[in-house]
Structure formats: structure tokens, C-alpha cells
Batch of 3 targets.
Target 1
Amino acid sequence: MAQMAILLRLVNVRRRMLEDLTDSEGRQRSRWDRLAVVDWPIARAMALSGDRRAPVVAAKALSRLGNGPIYFVILVALILFRPRGAVAVGLCGAASILLLHCVYPAIKRSAARPRPRDLGIACPGAPPPLDRYSFPSGHVMTLTAALLPIVLAAPRVWPYGVATWAAMAWARLAVGDHFASDVAAGTLIGAGVSGLIAYWIVI
């Protein structure tokens, strides 16, 4: 009898765990379903197909640059053009990116949002993503954090900063790696952290 009682207790605990998990997944799906009203039409409109050769090549190249090489370009530009407080700008960008990437994986896992490419919206031959989930956009978040201190230190370069950000945002939508709300969230998170650090270091 004691063994039967223990077995029943274990079964009840397992059932409650499954119910909690189902409820959590249901709430998560409901949250993304509300965003999908806006996100899905944009994702379908922005995703590129293989027959649009030049835009596909551009989107793939930008996505690959966002994996890391673009930050070497930004660093070289800082060294060559030496905006006011170039060292402080570089430190601010580096500190912001380091801090963001300490918390970014946890945000991704907590959100657990599937990417558009996993739901049937994808650009053929697009490079594989660096991680599993969609929300927020790490490429846009990191780029925003790197560019904001530069724009604050040298306001005259803001058109170039905005153009670089817009190109990366477009590329992430075009290859089917993100929804528009992922890009928006990445921008806000990157700007928030980088802006706070820049307030103490750059401004």
C-alpha cells in the first residue's frame, strides 16, 4: 500500500508539471499570436525568394557581416576618422555589447519564439542563424549598441548610422530570421543599454 501511495503521488506530481508546462506554452503562444497580426504580413512581404538575385545576395552578405566582421569595419572607421572621444566611444560600445550578451541568451530562451524560417518563411540558401530563437534580434541589438555612442559623439554621422542600422534590420527580415517586433525589441534593448553607458562615458 505504501508503494502504491508513493506511485500515485509521483503520478500526480508529473501530471501537475505537465499541466503547468502546457499552460506556460499556451500563454507564450497567445502572446506571439497577438503580435502575429502585425508581424506575419510584414514577414511575408519582406522575405526574399531565390529568383530575386541581387537583393538575396545583399541580404545574405549583410547577415554574415552582422555575425562579427562589421564590428572590425566600425573599429577601423573609429581609428581612421577619430571622432571626438574616440577611445571613450570604443569603450562604451565594447562595454555595452559585453553586458548585452551576458543577458541576451537568457532573454532568448525565456521568449522561445520560433524564427520565421522555422514557420515556413525563409530565403533559400540563407546562412544558418547563430542560435535557435527569434526574439529579440541579436544582430540589430548589437549593431545599435555599437552605433549609438558614435552618433552621440559625432552627430554629423547620424545618416550613416541610420542607414547601416536600416540595412541590417532589412537583411534580418529578408532572410527570414526575424519578425519586425524582434528587430524593434533588439533596437530598444541595444539603445537602452548603450545609451545609459554612453551617458556616463561619452556625453
Target 2
Amino acid sequence: MSAEMPRISGLMVIVAAALVDADGRVLVQQRAAGRAMAGLWEFPGGKIEAGESAEAALVRELHEELGISTETACLAPAGFGTAAMDDDFQILLLLYVCRKWQGIPQALDAAQIRWLRPLDLHDLPMPPADLPLIGLLNALI
């Protein structure tokens, strides 16, 4: 029996990574000027393209945004956050933890990047879908 997955109108699924270094710090990037939510700090990632799995999309996004390479096997699902952007549009953010990658992260698509301990993320302005994930990361790392 083949059943088609129901589509939810007005829902955008985003994937993001909490890159964790050897000191237990997490990488966040600041959204560039001229973009929606410019100046806010977020976990790197982005939209899933047609035909991509969430993990493949995240591997692609990390390469595009930070210039690093990783494999889907290095991504551990951690949790999710949601945010209503207006009355008929909602974001679902799928967060993965990644501790293994190749290359040195660079701000290729952001104003800047920072490595911070999870508790220090509370001091940054972040998008609504990212905020509930701070406590989760603090418990996991």
C-alpha cells in the first residue's frame, strides 16, 4: 500500500546543526544584513530542497555556509523548535548535533560566527525557533 505524505500548507521545515567543538562550545552565526531576521544569531543550516533528506540538506548547507564537510552519519538528531511567523506561516526547525567535520568553519554566508558555551547563547538575540533549543543543548553537551 502506498500512501502519500500529507503536506501542511504554510509550514517551512529548516535543518540546522549545533557544531560542538572539543571544549563543548557551539558554533552560531549572525544573519547578514539585508536578510530576514538580519543581525540575529542562529545555528547554521537552511531549507531542505526538493528530493533531499533532512540530513543531506544539512550536509549541503554546512558546506555552503561554513565551507566545512561532514557526513550524514555524523549528524545526531537532537530536537526541534517551532515558531509562528504570522497567522498562516510557521517554521519547524530540526536541530542536529555534529561533533565531527573536516575544515575550519568560516562565515561564508553570515556576518560573523562565534563559538560559545550553550548557557552563553541566552545572551544573544536569536530567532524564536532557535531559543527553546538552548536548554536542550545545555543538557546534552
Target 3
Amino acid sequence: MKPRHKRALMIVGALATLAIAAVLILNALNSNIALYVTPSDVVAGKAPKGQAFRIGGLVKDGSLKRDELVVHFIITDLVKEIPVSYKGILPDLFKEGKGAVVQGKLDTDGQFVASEVLAKHDENYMPPEAKQALEQAQKNGAK
């Protein structure tokens, strides 16, 4: 084999390796992305099917119930409500009437099974997308 052919083969091999690495990295990033959806969007059927996503809103007052290690509560955007179940330890700042973001999937019964629960850390702070989603849901609910 001539040196020119060896060089061309090395270049093609390097490009193929780069392409495979890029595909694997993009696939890993895509599987870790969790879309943010409001309870109103979930009820309207706009939630991704079979994929993890996040729901943000307020924990409804009086909805927090504990069943051994499983915690049940309702997350609301003040228009629609989604029942959530979570198996694990809740963050210290998690309380009824306070903001929370839960990540997980919908089960066949329409209940959200959370794999992660995040509590809002300051009563004056709300992520911009969560604030906008709550305001939009209230506007749509008022119509």
C-alpha cells in the first residue's frame, strides 16, 4: 500500500471515529433533556409520552399525604391539578402552598410518578419559565 493510500485511510478512519463519537454524545444529551410542562399542558395532552419531563407549580394546600416511603401530593398552576407520587426523601424546603418542580413520567392512570423533587429555595424567587407558565395558565383559565 502506498503512503498516500495509508494517509487517506487514516483520515477516513479518524472522521468515522469523530462521527460515531458525535452521535453518541448527542444521543446522551438528548436522553437527559427534560422538558418543562405546566399542569394545564399535561391535562391538555401536550406532555411528552413515554419520556421524562418536568412539571412546575405550587403544591396544593392539604394535598400532602405520606404512605410509608411514598409521598403523594398535588401540583397545580392554579387552574389545573396533577396528582404526583414520589418515593424518597423530600427536600427540607418542600411545603404545601410553596413552589416545586418535579421530574418524572406519567403513568397509565394519569398520575405523575416523580423521580426527583426540587423545592423553591426563596419565596421571592421563581424561575422565569415557571412564572411565565403560571401567569399564562391563569390567563387561559380566566377566559
